[in-house]
Amino acid sequence: xxxxxxxxxxxxxxxxxxxxxxxxxxxxxxxxxxxxxxxxxxxxxxxxxxxxxxxxxxxxxxxxxxxxxxxxxxxxxxxxxxxxxxxxxxxxxxxxxxxxxxxxxxxxxxxxxxxxxxxxxxxxxxxxxxxxxxxxxxxxxxxxxxxxxxxxxxxxxxxxxxxxxxxxxxxxxxxxxx
Length: 178
Prior knowledge:
Shape: rod-shaped
Helix content: over 70%
Structural class: mainly alpha
Largest sheet: 2 strands, antiparallel
Number of helices: 7
Number of strands: 2
Strand content: under 5%
Radius of gyration: 28 Å
């Protein structure tokens, strides 16, 4: 081959390899970036919410069992807030099912999706209640979860509002408003 043809062929081969290499590197970087972004969404949107809901429930149960909280609550306040905390956990677990979060977690964190699905609070609650000879039917749990999900933003408006009594500066007294 003549030298100009060889140079052109070499340049074409270099251009093709360079373009292909650039596309491959861009694909790998984009793929990695998307995976990191998916991981952040799963953690921030779902796992933090589940952790917060379970911690709220744990603190509620601890306050009731070990700190005498029930004695300072009205029946209405106890019922509404306890159902809300319970419903919040059930709602988040329901969202995990409906939005296929468990398989997504499994794909990114091997074993986590399966572990969370097998050890759902809903399952543990039902097992415990059956041993105590209580029933909390599946559709009642779904209804509670849906109710909490739909009223999450407006729930604080439905609870008794607590504020400082007017005219007290030295002592802070809580007064139920409404």
